[in-house]
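fyi for ur records
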Amino acid sequence: MFSSKPQLFKLLYASDLHGAERCFLKFVNAAKFYGAQALVLGGDLTGKAVVPIVRAGATWRASFLNRSYELQSETEVAELEKSIRFGGSYPYRTDPEEVQRLDGDPAYLKQIFDQLMRAAVERWMDIAKERLDGTGVQMYVIAGNDDEFYVDQALRQNGFAVFNDEQVVEVGPCLMVGSSYANPTPWNSPRELAEDSLYLKLRALADLATQGRPVILNFHVPPYDSGLDNAPEVKPDLSYNLIGGQPHVIPVGSTAVRRVIEETQPVLGLHGHIHESRAAGKIGRSVLLNPGSRYSEGVLDGALVSFTADGTLKSYQLVAG
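which gave:
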């Protein structure tokens, strides 16, 4: 419950960490630094690569970031595993025979990759619970279009973080509804819908938040042509379309998301998905934020938002650390 005394409720939003554990640890620790009562994680949590650490007799060998390693002790192996996780990939201890199978059997490689991704998400949720439980800080999470569907169960299962995907939840004085889906991309990711179908899904979700309270849309994909969705145009072969030798930058967000925002006018839209389009903007009365993502550099990009006790948006800023 909120008293009548003037006070601010602060939330910190970040998205697109893509397996980078250094950024996730910064995110969890940032609640205390910024005085935030809520942490909102906007999807695309999983990484993109497995790094085998191969036993070779009494030693281990690995290749990571164009460097070869020969590790002599458990301590050295553990340190490399930490560096791999911090960089957004998944270390995997194995042997030469299994490496051959991983190279020659795509289905087996995906099985191992899925196991590692799920375990990493579970690990993150356990870390959040360990560090935040009892502090008064609540964490809210959704998956993103790049995340496989089993990630949802991994996000739910430890019971600490509030799963916000396709659900309405209370965040301080506001209601928040989330969605992991995106409009079609050149990469054919797990959670994509044609714009017409995406609009129907998102409008139905937005309509669930009809209790007369300020509404936050935690939609992974940003609205089309909003300044939050500018990215290089990608050709069918996944190369960039160059004009004058430079990538041609175009808006790639969702027309469905834009339409829902125009029609429902939430107090705030929290978006990610387009890493290079760090920006704040507005559509009508709605404030829209995309903090961007520099996970590969170990930088946590975020958005800090403050509300008054009645849900009025008091201030917002893009932050980094």
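The mean pLDDT is 96. thats all i got for now
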